């Protein structure tokens, strides 16, 4: 995704549950707020890394501060793993990215792992008719929606942040 504050998800991302918002705060504060919002919405944080730091360490090149916060909901994850014969594990955990796009502006974005799995044909053959698959989408989707609502209601939410898309 481009690192400028005018970027928004293009139409092709709408069908994979893309969500984004902007926070007017420092990078570390935004990361803490993302962790808290997703934890409060029922997710665990099994992994986290900073690709910008890794790239700087190995290449000496500077990128805007970027943190990937890996989120997981064990109930949804179990269903997704079962429904994909374990193949979804190659993409676990789901990720929320916090990317600095201005001095005190952070872009927070996420795409729905189950929706991505549908796109790459790792989902059940007919995900629309799979009750279990729809349950996983509902569990994860409602938690993501709740977390983004929390971020958008915070005192650091950018006033002109794009409205989150529906899953």
TrEMBL record:
Source organism, top-level taxon: Archaea
Residue ranges constituting the DUF302 domain according to the UniProt record: 52-110
Matching SUPFAM superfamilies: TT1751-like
Matches recorded under InterPro entries: DUF302, TT1751-like_sf
Protein name: DUF302 domain-containing protein
Organism classification: Archaea, Methanobacteriati, Methanobacteriota, Stenosarchaea group, Halobacteria
